[in-house]
Amino acid sequence: MITNPKITIHSKKTANSKNPFLILLTREGVGVSLILILMFLFLAVSAPNFLTVGNLSNLLVQSLFVMLVAFGTMFVLSTGGIDLSVGSVLGLAGGVTGWLMMNGLNMWIAILAGLFVGALIGAINGLIITKLGVSAFLVTFAMLYIARGVLYLLTKDEPIRNFVTPEFAFLAQGKVLGIPMPVLITLVIFLLLYFIFKSTSYGRLIIAAGSNTEAARLSGVSTDRIKISVYALSGLLAAVAGILLTSRLTSVQPSMGSEYELEAIAAAVIGGTSLFGGKASVVGVAIGALILGLVSNGLDLLSVNQFYRLIITGLIIITAVAIERYLAAKS
Amino acid sequence: MAVEDDHVLISLTGITKEFPGVKALENVSLDVRKGEVLALVGENGAGKSTLIKILSGLYHKDNGEIRVRGKSVEIQDARHAQELGISTIFQEPTLAPHLTAVENVYLGREIYHSYFGGTVKILNEKEMYQETEKLYRNFFSTVEDLKRPVIELGALKNRVIEIAKALSVKASVVIMDEPTAALAEHEREVLFDFIRALKEQGVSVIYVSHHLKELFLLADRFHVMRDGKHIATVSADETDIDQLVSMMVGREISNFIAKETVPIGEESLRVIGLNQPGVLKNINFHIKKGEIVGIAGLAGSGRTETVRAVVGADRISSGAVEVDGKPFRIQSPRDAIRAGIGLLPENRKLHGALIEMSVSNNITLASIKRVLSKKFVLKKKAELDIASDYVQRLGIKTPTVHQKVRFLSGGNQQKVILAKWLFTKPKVLIFDEPTIGIDVGAKVEVYNLMAEFVRGGGGILMVSSDLPELMGLSDRIYVMHKGEFVHEFSRDEATEENIMYYASGGHQ
């Protein structure tokens, strides 16, 4: 038998990255955290009202809706897919919940129905993509229109309102121990997803399927099932965001959630998710969403026209991806 | 050197190249004579590819001298190398798939009609076509398919187009890296004829390949490398495979393929009436415990399709699989794993390993349930221990089990894939081209690991285009022709001639 005495089995260091600074930067989420901290410091110095509890809490809550959607987008992207339907799903799930409550249904049943609609649309996306072999871009692009159309039918072109009970409003407007409810809900979901992604076989198999679908399938991974499940998860998370947003806004506009799919992709990409699959980070995506929120909040405080937000967001995406490319080429 | 200077096109002296932590080339000298085929041989990591990358301008040497036609030069980049008359055809095809042969040959150097003093340029397709045609007539004496997209043309014609492209920039030295990798047996011979035609026209070829046997059909001289050093240069008439192999590995490999006698047990795998419309016709075979069973056949005869069908990678229209006498319904590779069958595919990087994932993640992938607690939580410590154990037992050369598989050599990648299957505790392993692109030393290690598996009561089905390998290892050999098993040989009956007779349809 061949023996190989020189193996240092449990050391995390790989042979091809030597510069300790580089290793630190390529660690999960460190690069984006740096951008976040720099922006934070900049605003703390230049915007007088930035460092107030009210503003920071507001900023945080504003970021959560995109963050929740972006978590789902991250799971989809890491299998090498894409989900463009989440903005419409967010609106439709919120709309279904509101509409059912407006028609006198129990709040919890209405919420479950909203979540179910989100997961169902996601699962349908996944089924069409895997079983019929249509590209994810096309399927979810079509679903973007269909879900939005259904919401228009539901609202009959009028916003859904006058359904909000105090309990329902509490979901997004209440506080527990001084912490806003949406923050708590998102924190629980974040921790859960982090655990799933890092420490369960499901997370491992998602990365395997995204990194090389055929090789994973030949190794016995049910790649179709994995892919269907990430689209369902993406729909479910969009629905969570939609229901929370409905609670916060106390009404459902037919256009609710438009363009969230793009914001979510932006947050995921800034957070180091690869569009080709096989690489993603839950922490990175959370930071990505916070960065997007910070841009918007900062421009408000500095009384700069919000139109700049789009330009700055675009520049941040390019910078984040360029840095990642550079670091990947280095290692 | 005893050779007259005007016969030497390129001469390298004392070339050294260092990468962080590795001396890739150490004081290497080489000369290429006009109109010869110089075979560059050595194990993976011997420095062959570094050397050809220096010659093609992709790397810069640290030290030493390069002379082209007697003149000392510093090769700046790929374009400069071409200007010096050195063109390289890499192992991976570099043609633009949807362009035609002519467009590919002239890619980046298109010929134009100029109008209005050069302000308007229009492609001169006629001249490019005629020039390409002339080139084909000169060298290959056939002109076909110059106007079809190359993607429709098949591996051989693609290779020929790449050669034409090299020649069209007036290359006097063409470097070829494993040019026959994707070719079928009879296509190889056509390619060899073309290469001989180049020689006759005074073009020199540096030919890099692991296929020693194939090289003897072509090479004038062998340039043997090992561990970044030049070991020897020998004329083809004065050496043989055994001598080359021992120079390459630095030790005598006696019994290059040693067949162990293992007691043959009960039937392990039986495949009955496998059909796949248009591809496979009524395939029946069996493997016993302790047996290595080979499948021979030409490229396209359905060997890979057979093994993929057995593990449920592709749909079949009918057929049954029994393992240890029990029937199993196999509709996906997952079902195959449950039945105790694992496939090591032909294309390691695309289908075998997940090269962007770590060694340990690869090893546990196919049996991830065995490293879970509470049905879904990964036991990471246990996983690393298991991976480390396989790394030790199989002699996988990797700095750590966290290393991405992409950074391992072909032989070590194959061992990682084997470790993955061994961890599923299989009863039958199927190897599709087990040692393709693997260097000699690692080949022997893979053979030993295969022998160890059958010694433990496993059964092996093996597809190989390397007939000496197939005959050396197999207890029985099935021969395929056009999607059917046409003959079965016992170990003693099989010769290269009678295998080829059936494989090429000679019985019909």
UniProtKB/TrEMBL annotation, chain A:
* Keywords recorded for this protein, A-Z: Cell membrane, Membrane, Transmembrane, Transmembrane helix
Q: Which InterPro entries match?
A: ABC_transp_permease
Describe its membrane topology.
Multi-pass membrane protein
Q: Does the keyword Cell cycle apply?
A: no
Its annotated compartments are: Cell membrane
The UniProt GO MF terms for this protein read: transmembrane transporter activity
Chief localization class? membrane
Q: What cellular component GO annotations does this protein have? A: plasma membrane
Q: What is this protein called?
A: Ribose ABC transporter permease
Top-down, what is the taxonomic lineage of the species of origin? Bacteria, Bacillati, Bacillota, Bacilli, Bacillales
TrEMBL record, chain B:
The record ties this protein, via CDD domains, to:
ABC_Carb_Monos_I (cd03216), ABC_Carb_Monos_II (cd03215)
Q: List the PROSITE patterns hit by this protein, alphabetically.
A: ABC_TRANSPORTER_1, ABC_TRANSPORTER_2
The record, for Pfam families, names: ABC_tran
The chain positions of domain ABC transporter read 10-252, 264-507
Kindly list the residue ranges recorded as spanning the membrane. Answer: none
* Topological relation to the membrane, as annotated: Peripheral membrane protein
Q: Which range is the signal sequence, renumbered to this chain?
A: none
Q: What GO terms fall under cellular component here?
A: plasma membrane
Q: Does the keyword Membrane apply?
A: yes
Name the Gene Ontology molecular function terms of this record: ATP binding; ATP hydrolysis activity
Q: Which UniProt keywords apply?
A: ATP-binding, Cell membrane, Membrane, Nucleotide-binding, Repeat, Sugar transport, Translocase, Transport
Write out the annotated subcellular location.
Cell membrane
Could you confirm whether the keyword Cell wall biogenesis/degradation appears in this record? no
Among InterPro entries, the record links this protein to: AAA+_ATPase, ABC_carbohydrate_import_ATPase, ABC_transporter-like_ATP-bd, ABC_transporter-like_CS, P-loop_NTPase
Tell me which SMART domains the record gives.
AAA
Q: What is this protein called?
A: Ribose import ATP-binding protein RbsA
Q: Which organism is it from?
A: Paenibacillus abyssi
